[in-house]
Structures are given as structure tokens and as C-alpha cells.
């Protein structure tokens, strides 16, 4: 199957980025995930600049719902980086983020006061006497 023009653009952009092999793999994987999402939604842009920015919010929600928090963050960050490098206006990428609440929802820790402790009263000599 022949690669689409958009995938060729993305591959060219990623190959020009100076980074390690692992980061390039993450960027390619992020693109493939987004491309599959676009195809499932019926979008086939002919250029990176023609990707509909209204797809970013639903894609972020898709990542949040279907990936572990760290993976969702990495996928969205890598995709943002690729799109910025391709010349996509950064202001149009605001929805490609994971809200902090959704990432930490299951990992929330509450601080509790030990059962037998009470608030500490600090006496101030000369004032509280």
C-alpha cells in the first residue's frame, strides 16, 4: 500500500529532527495512532496543514480513554511537536493536551493527619500569657 502524501510529509519531518532512535519511534508511533484515528473518523487530509484542528480534541479524548496516562501524554506531546515542526500554527494545537485531572485521577493521594494528632498550638511568650 502506498504511503499518503501526509505520511510522507510526517516521515520527512521526523527524519530531519535531531534526536535519538527511541524518540523517533515514539513520534512515528504517535503519528500512526493519529492517522488511524483520522481514518476511522473519515478524514483523509492531503497535507499536514490541511488537518482539521477540530479533530484534536476528540483525539486527545480518545488517547485519555484508551491509554495509560504516561502514554497519552507522550503520544499527544510527540504529535504536537511533529505538527509544530511541520509549520502547523501552535495556537491551533491547544486541544492536543491531557488535562492534569484526567492523568492524576486514579493516582491521587490524600494527605491525612495521623489519628491521634491534633492541631499544634504554638504559644507565643508574652502574647498568649
UniProtKB/TrEMBL annotation:
UniProt region (Disordered), positions on chain: 91-129
Name used for this protein in its record: Uncharacterized protein
Species, as recorded: Pandoraea thiooxydans
Biological classification of the source: Bacteria, Pseudomonadati, Pseudomonadota, Betaproteobacteria, Burkholderiales
Amino acid at each position: 500500500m502506498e504511503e499518503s502524501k501526509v505520511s510522507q510529509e510526517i516521515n520527512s519531518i521526523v527524519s530531519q529532527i535531531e534526536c535519538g532512535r527511541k524518540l523517533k519511534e515514539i513520534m512515528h508511533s504517535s503519528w500512526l495512532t493519529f492517522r488511524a484515528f483520522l481514518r476511522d473518523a473519515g478524514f483523509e487530509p492531503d497535507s499536514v496543514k490541511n488537518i482539521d484542528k477540530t479533530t484534536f480534541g476528540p483525539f486527545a479524548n480518545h488517547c485519555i480513554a484508551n491509554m495509560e496516562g504516561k502514554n497519552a501524554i507522550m503520544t499527544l506531546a510527540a504529535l504536537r511537536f511533529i505538527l509544530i515542526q511541520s509549520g502547523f500554527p501552535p495556537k491551533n494545537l491547544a486541544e492536543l493536551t491531557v488535562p492534569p485531572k484526567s492523568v492524576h485521577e486514579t493516582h491521587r493521594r490524600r494527605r491525612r493527619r495521623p489519628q491521634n494528632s491534633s492541631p499544634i498550638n504554638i504559644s507565643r511568650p508574652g502574647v498568649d500569657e
